[in-house]
Amino acid sequence: MEPSQVKSFAERYLDAFGCRIIEQRPGLIQAELSVEADPDLVHRPFYWMYVEKMGLNPQTSTLTWVFDREEAPQGIPAERLSFGSPRFQQMLHSARKHGRFIRLYEDTPRPVRSRAGSKPYDPWLGVNYRISYLCDRKKEEILHFGIHLRTGEIIENFYSRIRDRNWNPRLPAHRHILPPLFTVAEAVGELEYNLQGYVEQQDMEWARDAKEQLNRELERLHAYYPEEWRMSDELHEEKKQRIRETVWQYHPRVEVEVVNAGLFYLDTPPV
Amino acid sequence: METIPIRMDRRWLNEFEERMETDSGWSTWDRFRLALDAAEAQKVPDFDTLRSLSTLQGLTPLPHQVETARRVLGEMRGRAILADEVGLGKTIEAGLILKEYLVRGLVKNALILVPSSLVLQWSRELNRKFQIPAMAQKKAWMWDRYDILVASIDTAKREPHRSKVLSRHYDMLIVDEAHKLKNRRTQNYRFVNEIRKKYSLLLTATPVQNELSELYNLVTLLKPGQLGRQQAFSTHYIAGKRKPKNEEQLREEVRQVMIRNKRSDGHIHFTRRNVENVPISLYPEERALYEGITRFVKDQYHNSGPIKSLLSLIILQREVCSSRDAAFLTLFKLLKKGVTGQEELPPDVYRLVNLLRRVERQAKVEEAVIRVRSLKEKVIIFTEYRATQDVILRHLAAEGIIAVPYRGGFARNKKDWMMELFRNRAQVMVATEAGGEGINLQFCNHIINYDLPWNPMRVEQRIGRVHRLGQEKDVTIYNFATQNTIEEHILWLLHEKINMFRMVIGDLETILTEMGTEGDMEQSLMKIMLESEDDREVRRRLTDLGESFSEARKEAEIKKQEREALVDGTQPG
Lengths: 271, 573
Known about the structure:
The structure holds two protein chains of two kinds. By secondary structure, chain A is an alpha/beta fold.
């Protein structure tokens, strides 16, 4: 992430978490953290325990960040916020922790004629998956799937297709939801089945390579240690451990995690 | 090929359904997008690019260090011997590799085993340069509490620590100074062998010291079977103790698990060292004091008078070359000794004190002030004595030159603070300590050796603070030497005879070891200074010492070439 990206992320974070910006200049932000953001960004568990026990009004921290070495103003004690700085990593972590599940209703700005009666919403489930391809190495990708909870239709890039719409967290007046025909659990089952198909179609060169490497390493171990009946208990144990380590290091596998997910009630199908 | 296991994480579904049931705890659209952007930023998009490079703050690894990390992760798949020559940054390479695995989420916990003297330095470097939250292991409870620990190998291998270490799985194990694992019968070797680990780095500048079997042991510890069974290895590769056969094949095998960058590879550019000797002529009063002390020392030595500690005698002589104040302190102690012993105070000591009182101007410190002023750039002045340090600081202050002190006794924070002051505000740092960690002064390129240590290693440490990786300018070393004193002899030996100021420390250590007892230069010099009747004898004996240094140097060079031939294919010259 470039300094400008780090800065804009920090601005969005402060805004989303209700922090008070005290000063904002090119290359510098000073902000007073909110009660929600403070424990995530500033490590002081004992303070928060104490505040809670005593029922006190918490004093949150004020932090000053600069983003670019060149632009940093002189004479102000500030920490540099960059992609690698521990504070920014905490911010990323905090953002992920608090943005997991949502339920939103599309907000279409047009007069709703009450005479026409209530207008229905289509229910969709959107899930953002992180897929990790693992052996002794690792590669990840993030996939944005959506599934229509009435038809079971699955579409890719769901998120980017609905990203620019307007949302309302509450069901607006004179609106109703068409009843889902799939439960969320069923829908997730469909998504996972689909995902499995996706993964299996990927280039698995890396996995073949890891598997071959694993076999070579195991062969090497078998060749190195003497025949079973010649080995002392100690040596036997050592060989078993080396084999376990080798498998641990190389065996190829895929792990799928959910970054976040939401129920989206749409006016029009995603395009 | 058979299918690959896929693990779907479904723990989230319960939480999601719970929110649906209770209709509460939903996040907002802003936060949802933020979370997804955060995940995108943290994603590892491919197998090979070094992600950690973009996360580093204030550290730019050198090309050969980046290349090393790349090869360890790619070709060697996380198990390697890092065998760079001294001074090329093995620690940086190891830190970079560890960081990359951490960033990729492939390493969650790591153990770094080092000699006890390096525990703090390692944990500080990992924290500072790589923002890796490494803790220095001190207490037994810490084994379970922290994910990344730096521990002394000698502590870790003993109970109660040992069983703690052996009960865990480490994603990564790093062992520094790994040549201490060359013998597979030792406790160290067996301990490291028992540790359960996924990735492993062994760091050593000398993968082979004496025998080929050392290399075999090291490689076998890392990857059992890489060089076959011991018996087969011996018959196939060993012709004699240090003589291999089937060299090409051996090298190929070793190259798969070991990386060795060398200074001579040329990918590191070291700037030049210039040396300027600055002769100082003493004022008559200073001269009188020096002569007085020299005579006193000789008399004491010959008569074995009341002061028997030869060490303090020679020190007195060295001190007086440094400053009046340094000598005064020692004289004062000698005086006090006399008083408490309730003996007659030796009249010659009184005479010396009187001589000392008459010294008002000191030629050396005046020269230092002139130099500093004419250089107009940052200068570090090294002296052996606290009292001299004060004198220099006083004189610089009187001239309005900003200078900061640096001593071994300072607490860590104070040391850091002084370094910062020197970097940002002061023109001069006056230091009594050159060894130890943390003084990296690449931003300064003038060194004044106000007086000279008699131990060449210490001389090299001084220069090494400034002339190191990251120094962009040529470095100039000014050696102050008072004329017609023992200082001049020492400088003559170090500069003319052993060409001290142009060498690098790794070589020096081997050479001194090669010299045997004579290699304890401080002792050898002291003997020469005490026993010699006159300057002619001093010079003769120093010449001899210089000769044996040259011999040792040649010997060390031959041995080194033999080793190099084994590990990286350089032909013996």
